[in-house]
Structure formats: C-alpha cells, structure tokens
C-alpha cells in the first residue's frame, strides 16, 4: 500500500519536474522581453472638443501601431515598442493639467504628446515645462502659447498669426505684376483679430498697401454698406478673417454689389465642402488657408499623403482629418527626434528638436525658432475651381494652379 | 456716390427690419406679451422656405404664403394652449409681464434646440438663379432681390393695416388695445382675440423669415439680431403702431448703414442701441406710438 503510494508520488513528481522544465524553456525567449517606451497624452475625448480630440487620438494611434508594426522606435542600439497611455481631459483645461501631472508623476511616462486646443495646452504645457518634459503640440497654434519663454514645447502647425501669410506669398510667387493693395476685414473675435493683425503686419512689412482694415460685429447679418466702402477703395486682394457665415455673406453681398476684387480670400469657408454647395458658381476662385488635405503632395520617407490616407482609411474606416494628420505628424516627429538623440533624456530630445530641419513630413516643413514655433512650415492655400478644391500653395504640395484675377460674377 | 449707395442699402434693408418688427409690435401692443421667441419664428419661416426650395425646387417667393400660414397656425396654438394661461395676468400686473417673458424665453430655447436637432446648426441660405442680379444706376447698384424684399415687406405691413381697419376681428383687436374693460363689456372673446393677434404676429415673422432666407444666411443659434431690431424699432416707432414700425424700420436701416460707413463697422449695432437708450430717456412713447408708461 505504502509502496504503491510512493510510486504514484514519484510519477507525479517527475511529471511536474518535466513540465516545469519544459515550460521554463518555452517561456525563456519571452522573458528576455522587448523594451517599451511609455508615451502619455491627455486629449479631449468628451465635452465640446470630443470630435477634434478623437481625431487627434486616432492620429497618435495610427502612428503608434504603425511604428510598432515596424518593430519599434530605434533608440541607440535597441528598438523600443511604443506603449501609449491616453486620458480624457473632458475638454477642461484644469483637468488636462492634472492629467499631465499624473502622467509624469504617477504613470512615470517617458514622453508626452500634446492635447487638442490651445486653451487646454496652456495649463498642460505649464506642468510639462516645470517638470522638464518635452511636449510636441500637434495643432495648438495660438500665438500666446509661445510667448511665455517655454523651452520644451514644439508646434507642428504654423502659428495663427501666420495663417494669412501664405496667400500673400502665393501672390508674390505666382502673379506678375504682383498685387499692390489689400483690404482686410475681420469680425470682433480673438482668433480672427490675431489672423487679421498678423496679415496686416506682414503686408505692411513687405510694402503692400493696406487700403482698408476694419472690424465688424461678429453677430452681423448685413455687410452691404461696408462692402460699398470697399468698392470705392478697389483693392487687389480682399481678405476676410471671419467665420463660415461671414464668408458666405460677403460673397453674396459682393455679388449683389456687382463687384469683385482680383483675389478673394477667406479664413474659413472654401476649405469646407458646404461653401461650394451653398454658393454654387459664386464660390469659384475663392481662396482659403488649409492646414492639411489628403490631396496634398507632401511626403514622409515612410509614406506620402495619399498612402497615409489609404492606410488610415483601412484602419479607421474613414479619411483622416487635418487634426489626425497633424497628430500623426507629431508622432513621427517625436520618433525621428528619438532616433537622432539615441536617448530618452528630455534635454537631449529637446536639443535635437530645436535643431530639427525637416522638409519631408506629411504636413510640410518643420523647423523651429527658439519659442518652439514652426517657422519652416507654411499653411497651404486652396482655391475653388469649378466647384472643386485645388491645393495651389505651397507648390511642393500643390495639385492645381492659381486662377488670377477672379472671373467677374456676370461672366460665370 | 458712396453716400447714395449707403442710403439705398439702408432704406431697402429697413423694409425687412420693419417686417420683422411689425408683428412683434402688434403682439406687445395688444396683449402686453414681449415675445422673446419672435426671432426664432423668423428663423423657422426661413427654414420652411429653405426646405421647400431645396426639396421641391419651388421658387422662394411662392413659399411666402406657406411659411406665413404655417407660422400663423403655430402662433395660434401657442397662444391658445400656452400663453393664454398667463396673458390675463400680463394685462394686470408687472409680475404677469415677467411670466410671459419667462414663458416666451423658454419657448425660444425649445424652438432653437428642436430646429438644431432636426436640421443641425449649419448655416443655410437660399441661392436662386436671380440672386446677385442687380439694377445699375450709374455706379449705384440695387439688387433686384432686395427691391422685391422691400416691396413685399411693405405689402405685408399694409395688409396688416387693412385687416385691423376693415375686418370685424381686426376692429376687435384694436378695441382691446384701446380699452380692455370696454372690450370685455361689449362681449369680445378675449382669449380668441389674443390667439389671433399672436397668430398674426407669428405669421408676419414667417413672411420676414422667407425674405431673410433669400438675402441672408441663417442658423437656429443666431436669432438674436432679429429680436434686437424689433426691440429698437418698437421703441422708436411706438408700441403697436404699424406706421411707426415701418418708419422706425427704415430709419434704423439708414442709421445702421450710415454708421457703418461714416463711423466704423464696429458701431453698426451699437448705434441702434444708443438710440434706444436716448429715446427711452427723452421720448418713451416713441416717435408715433401710444404712451409706454401710463
């Protein structure tokens, strides 16, 4: 009886030993696991910026999954997988600041990526700056973010005050003789006035004649009298730094007046399909700045805009928005900085970023001044031609040519 | 030339202002209801025209009776089943006026959000084949569509005065304005008269909405300008006066246009309100109307 029991015990023991050894051998390679780098981002996934925030997150996700599929980020001799940690700041600046703090102190992330909206980036970057963390901001382009003397923030998109510059650059590059005068109209709202003032300063600095610079009430429904004044000044370019409703209003009332300047540009309007849908032929030849379109001819060494759009569509089932493109671009920028720095030390990454001079990204050039503003990049310009959007500036990204001067209303 | 162009712009737009204000003024004058939802009625009228034009390609001008009738019915129902509960109070005490303010304010928020839910908050406008054509008078251009809008707005005001002066119901409405007690004594059905008055006011807002859709862009969340014009014009022209509303509307149009050109576009709306304050201080009965503060 006892012997029988002993036999069974030995059998059992030998099986256990064998299986343990086998399992140990089996899991051996997995223990020598891959290295990971923790990247944290606080983004608006609920609240008023839920749409834009979700687009930003998808852009980051796209990049992280893409780089992991390539084997990871090459930092020094080894490859690191990107491990993303996302938090929802509920579109609230205070929450965003707390979450960035949590990412740094609690989750002990190695790197940070930026939130959506400039108002949210304000307190969030204060925390990252105090902790000596680099933060790449995808689309936060309010000028006031970059006048606080911070050394660790870098913006992928050009700042708002430069938004109107591209239209003038385009004119000087492609029109002979170049236009001499400009009229600038803007509603009384913070963002519009930043764009309008930036444009006015640039035009004056380059010797252009600003014949009219006027603010109008944001809630206005009639601009016919202001446009009557405009007609008497007869500028070459009219730039309206307003919102969608102002752009359609100006177009209709200019047509009522039977007057069109040689070039007509709007801050917001022609980039959106609704503009051409609402106005029909009257929308033609209108210009507008655009931060990104999938039809742009920009290319990253890894993928160009068309390939990016294709892969993104396969992954998420819809085309990327300009927010997603910018957050993917931010991820790629971080990756390239890490590869060049060969280290996870924030100071080394900061130094590499500040010396970065890239021409090959899906959002155009990237080169920073000492505020962290992207002064290399230029906002694109689209023009409506036969009801379709054509990218006409910068020429490396363009798929069309500028039509100038705009065709009079009655000849359309 | 610029002066002439500005003046004409102002006069033509003033017609539309008058059309927006006249219904508001009538309701206020007759039943002492300050209808905060009036601007939303205008927007609703604009949507009716927009959808009929977009879906069935019917000329916006032909949709005028439809939006007027639809808003008339809505106005009648709102007064009969909602506002009539507080309108008696409104005639008696200032607390009652406060009640109608809260009620119409609530109605405005409901309308605003229902419209946003149904049709989104996007900006819409009706663009016809004749939009943008204009009469050229040697440098002064007058868009045809604005002439039509001006004429129709005045026609609506004229029609209202015919109704008030020539029909039995119209005369009953006027009787209520003159003497509430007298109207009660001769047996006028007050709730019915209030409902009809409110319906007429809403119908006029519907007409204004159709006209607005042809020259402006509109969205459910931007109805405030229409309400503020109505306020300024009623104070200018006098409470309950059709003639006052028309003259007040055209005056406001001209003043705004001239202010835009000669003071600065930033003052376009401010000037109207400055006049409102000055009138309330120096001539509270308005230029043509009955006394405000008895």
Number of strands of chain B: 2
Topology, number of strands of chain A: 15
Radius of gyration of chain B: 19 Å
Computed structural class of chain A: alpha/beta
Dominant shape of chain A: elongated
Which assembly state applies to the chains in this document? heterodimer
- For the CA atoms, what is the radius of gyration of chain A? 27 Å
Order of SSEs of chain A? HEHEEHEHEEHEHEHEHEHEHHHEEEE
The H-and-E topology of chain B, N to C, reads as: HHHHEEHHHHHHH
Major beta sheet, strand line-up of chain A: 8-7-9-10-11-14-15
Helix content of chain B: over 70%
Mean pLDDT of chain A: 91
End-to-end separation of chain A in angstroms reads 107 Å
Order of the strands making up the biggest sheet of chain B? 1-2
Overall description:
The complex is a heterodimer of chains A (412) and B (294). Chain A is elongated and about 115 Å long. Chain A is built from twelve helices and 15 strands. Chain A has 412 residues and is an alpha/beta fold. Helices cover 42% and strands 18% of the residues of chain A. Chain B is an all-alpha fold and 294 residues long. Chain B has helices at 2-31, 38-56, 64-92, 94-119, 144-166, 168-178, 180-185, 190-215, 224-237, 242-262, 268-282; strands spanning 134-137, 140-143. A two-stranded antiparallel sheet of chain B has the order 1-2. The termini of chain B are far apart. Chain A binds chain B through residues 185, 188, 214-217, 219-226, 228-229, 232, 244-245, 248-249, 252, 255-259, 274, 278-280, 282, 409, and chain B through 1-2, 5-6, 9-10, 13, 122-125, 127, 131-132, 134, 136, 141, 143, 145-146, 215-217, 219, 222, 224-225, 256-258, 260-261, 264-266, 268-269.
Q: What's the helix and strand layout?
A:
The complex is a heterodimer of chains A (412) and B (294).
Chain A: H1 2-31, E1 35-43, H2 50-69, E2 73-75, E3 78-88, H3 93-105, E4 111-113, H4 118-130, E5 135-137, E6 153-155, H5 165-174, E7 181-187, H6 190-205, E8 209-216, H7 224-233, E9 237-240, H8 244-257, E10 263-266, H9 273-279, E11 286-290, H10 305-316, H11 322-341, H12 346-354, E12 357-358, E13 366-367, E14 380-385, E15 388-393
Parallel strand pairs in A: 1-3, 1-4, 4-5, 5-6, 7-8, 7-9, 9-10, 10-11
Antiparallel strand pairs in A: 2-3, 11-14, 12-13, 14-15
Helix pairs in contact in A: 2-11, 3-4, 11-12
Chain B: H1 2-31, H2 38-56, H3 64-92, H4 94-119, E1 134-137, E2 140-143, H5 144-166, H6 168-178, H7 180-185, H8 190-215, H9 224-237, H10 242-262, H11 268-282
Antiparallel strand pairs in B: 1-2
Helix pairs in contact in B: 1-5, 1-8, 1-9, 1-10, 2-3, 2-4, 2-8, 2-9, 3-4, 3-8, 5-6, 5-8, 6-8, 9-10, 9-11, 10-11
């Amino acid at each position: 009886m006892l012997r029988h029991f002993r036999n069974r015990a030995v059998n059992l023991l030998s099986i256990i030993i064998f299986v343990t050894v086998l399992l140990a051998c089996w899991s051996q390679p997995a223990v020598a696991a891959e290295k990971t780098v923790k990247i944290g981002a606080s983004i608006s996934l609920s609240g008023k910026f839920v749409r834009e925030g979700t687009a930003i997150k998808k852009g980051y996700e796209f990049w992280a999954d893409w780089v992991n599929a390539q084997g990871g980020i090459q930092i020094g001799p080894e490859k690191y997988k990107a491990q993303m940690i996302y938090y929802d700041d509920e579109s609230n600046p205070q929450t965003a600041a707390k979450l960035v703090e949590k990412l740094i102190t609690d989750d002990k992330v190695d790197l940070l990526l930026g939130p959506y909206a400039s108002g949210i980036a304000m307190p969030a970057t204060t925390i990252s700056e105090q902790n000596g963390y680099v933060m790449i901001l995808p689309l936060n382009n309010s000028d006031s973010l970059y006048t606080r003397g911070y050394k660790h923030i870098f913006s992928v998109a050009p700042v708002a005050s430069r938004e109107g510059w591209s239209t003038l650059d385009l004119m000087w590059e492609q029109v002979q003789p170049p236009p001499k005068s400009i009229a600038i109209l803007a509603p009384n709202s913070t963002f519009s006035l930043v764009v309008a003032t930036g444009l006015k300063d640039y035009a004056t600095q380059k010797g252009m004649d600003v014949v009219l610079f006027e603010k109008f009430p944001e809630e206005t429904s009639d601009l016919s009298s202001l446009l009557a004044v405009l007609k008497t000044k007869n500028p070459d370019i009219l730039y309206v730094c307003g919102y969608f409703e102002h752009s359609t209003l100006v177009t209709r009332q200019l047509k009522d007046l039977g007057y069109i300047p040689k070039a007509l540009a709007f801050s917001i309007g022609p980039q959106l399909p609704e503009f051409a849908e609402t106005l029909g032929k009257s929308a033609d030849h209108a210009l507008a700045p655009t931060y990104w379109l999938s039809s742009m001819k920009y290319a990253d060494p890894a993928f160009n805009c068309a390939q990016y759009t294709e892969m993104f569509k396969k992954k998420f089932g819809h085309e990327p928005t300009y927010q997603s493109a910018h957050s993917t671009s931010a991820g790629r920028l971080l990756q390239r900085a890490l590869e060049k720095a060969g280290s996870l030390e924030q100071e080394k990454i900061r130094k590499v970023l500040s010396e970065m001079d890239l021409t090959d990204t899906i959002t155009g050039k990237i080169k920073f001044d000492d505020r962290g503003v992207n002064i290399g990049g230029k906002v694109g310009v689209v023009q409506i031609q036969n009801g379709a959007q054509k990218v006409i500036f910068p020429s490396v990204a363009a798929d069309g040519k500028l039509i100038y001067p705009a065709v009079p209303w009655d000849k359309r | 030339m610029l002066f002439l162009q500005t003046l004409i712009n102002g006069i033509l737009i003033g017609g539309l202002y008058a059309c927006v204000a006249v219904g508001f003024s009538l309701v206020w004058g007759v039943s002492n209801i300050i209808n905060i939802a009036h601007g939303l009625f205008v927007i609703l009228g604009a949507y009716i025209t927009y959808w009929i034009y977009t879906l069935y390609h019917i000329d916006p001008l032909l949709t005028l009776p439809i939006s007027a009738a639809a808003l008339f019915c809505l106005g009648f129902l709102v007064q009969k089943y909602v506002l009539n509960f507080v309108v008696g109070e409104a005639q008696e005490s200032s607390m009652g006026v406060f009640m109608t303010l809260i009620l119409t304010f609530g109605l405005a928020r409901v309308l605003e959000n229902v419209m946003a839910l149904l049709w989104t908050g996007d900006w819409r406008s009706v663009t016809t084949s004749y939009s943008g054509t204009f009469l050229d008078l040697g440098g002064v251009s007058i868009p045809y569509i604005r002439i039509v809008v001006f004429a129709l707005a005045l026609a609506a005001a004229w029609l209202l005065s015919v109704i008030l002066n020539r029909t039995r119901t119209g005369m009953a409405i006027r009787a209520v304005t003159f003497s509430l007690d007298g109207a009660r004594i001769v047996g006028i059905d007050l709730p019915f008269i209030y409902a009809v008055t409110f319906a007429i006011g809403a119908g006029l807002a519907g007409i204004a909405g159709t006209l607005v859709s042809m020259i402006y862009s509109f969205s459910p969340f931007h109805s405030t300008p229409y309400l503020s014009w109505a306020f300024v014009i009623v104070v200018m022209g006098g409470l309950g006066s059709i003639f006052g509303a028309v003259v007040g509307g055209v005056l406001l149009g001209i003043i705004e246009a001239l202010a835009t050109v000669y003071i600065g576009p930033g003052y376009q709306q401010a000037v109207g309100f400055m006049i409102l304050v000055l009138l309330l201080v120096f001539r509270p009965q308005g230029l043509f109307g009955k006394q405000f503060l008895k």
